[in-house]
Every structure is written in C-alpha cells, then in structure tokens.
Design brief:
- By secondary structure, the protein is an alpha+beta fold.
- The protein folds into three domains: 93 residues, no CATH class; 34 residues, no CATH class; 55 residues, no CATH class.
- The protein is built from eight helices and five strands; from the N terminus they run ααββββαβααααα.
- A five-stranded mixed sheet has the order 4-3-2-1-5, with helices on one face.
- Strand 2 and strand 3 form a beta hairpin.
- The longest helix is centred in the C-terminal third of the chain and has 33 residues.
- The protein is elongated.
- It starts with 7 loop residues before the first helix and ends with a helix.
- The chain binds zinc ion.
Length: 206
C-alpha cells in the first residue's frame, strides 16, 4: 500500500471547497471509525448529522482516486464530505487503517466445505444471487440430457394420435436416449476394434 499516495491536491480535485473544509473538520474530530484497507480499497464509517454512521468506500489507484461511494444522500456534484474525510484520514494518518488480506487470497485458502457453507449462507442472505448462479454455473451433462429427453417426449405427445405411428420408435424418452447413446457407442467400438486389428497387423510386419 506504500505505492498508493494521496495528497491534498488530489483529494481537493474531487470535491468543492466547502465540502473539503467540512471534511477537514470531520478528520480533526476523528469522525472516521473502523477504517480498513484491502488491496487498493479503503473502507470506513463516518459520523454524520442525520445517521449515526455513513458507510464509505474509496477505491484508489496510482493516480489517486478511481471510484468512491457513500450511503449518504449528498448529490451536489463531486465527493461528499464523508468520502473526503476517509481520504484525508488515509492521506494524513494511514496507521489508523487495519490492513486486510485481499479477498481472493482469503477465499483461495478456504477448503471446499468451507466455500460451500459460505456460498449457501450467502444464497440465504441474498436470494437474488440464485438467478445469477443459474446462468453462471453450466447444467450438469446428465441433467441436460434428461431435459432434452423430456422435451422430445413432449414433442411426441403433441403429435396427433393417428400420426404417432410414424415416430413410434421415439415415443419413450428413455428409449430414445438409450438408442442415441448406443448409436454412438457401437460404431466407436467397431472403429476401435478395427484400429486395434490394424495396429496388431502393423506390429506383426515390423
Ligand atoms: Zn457521504
């Protein structure tokens, strides 16, 4: 973190004079608590007028501040005084920041069971995540073929009874899957056997 340097001029560039002055007051009054740095991200809570604490997050880069957010309602352009107060605290008193390991590194140290328990708890807390996971995790192959078989069965059921004779061999979804698989397997076996025979003949000639 030593390569992340913040100066007053960098901080001033993101806020108006009045906000900067108020943020300096907040810094002098030790308004920031639970300050932490994780990678290049600063987090902390800032005392405020309408809520006991505002949650603040500042993302730094080598050039200064890449992004910043606060859950107060300030919406008058530039950073709010809480964001600036957190930045000033880091610029002037970095020792107040607890250094936390990068989250990717911490997750990498967990075992499979721990990760599973963590993810399950997260899904309970944030149910909307399940929609995202549905698209992020590919369907297991076995389930996919079962779904395809169901689809095939439905299509057969939609065909009028008098026409079903034409597609009778596909009437059973399970049978269809079996036939599809055996259709792949048998030629593959034959081909393998032929290759083995050819290899044996070649070996005999050598
Ligand atoms: Zn704020």
């Amino acid at each position: 973190m030593t390569n992340l340097k913040l100066t007053d001029s960098i901080i001033r560039a993101g806020a108006n004079e009045r906000v900067f002055a108020r943020a300096q007051e907040l810094f002098r009054n030790n308004a920031i608590s639970d300050a932490a740095i994780q990678g290049n991200i600063l987090t902390g809570y800032c005392e405020g007028m309408q809520s006991p604490f505002y949650k603040v997050r500042d993302e730094l880069d080598r050039g200064g501040v890449r992004a910043a957010s606060c859950d107060c309602e300030y919406d008058f352009g530039g950073y709010c005084k809480h964001i600036v107060a957190l930045l000033l605290t880091f610029a002037r008193d970095p020792e107040r920041f607890v250094v936390r390991d990068d989250m990717t590194k911490r997750l990498a140290e967990l075992g499979r069971e721990q990760l599973l328990a963590l993810l399950t708890e997260l899904l309970d807390e944030v149910p909307d995540l399940s929609d995202w996971l549905e698209t992020a995790i590919p369907e297991p192959a076995a389930r996919q073929s079962r779904l395809r078989a169901d689809g095939a069965n439905r299509r057969v059921a939609e065909i009028p009874v008098e026409n079903q004779g034409a597609v009778q061999p596909a009437a059973s979804a399970d049978g269809q899957v079996e036939r599809a698989m055996s259709g792949c397997r048998i030629p593959a076996k034959k081909k393998l056997r032929r290759l083995a025979e050819e290899a044996t003949q070649l070996a005999q000639k050598l």
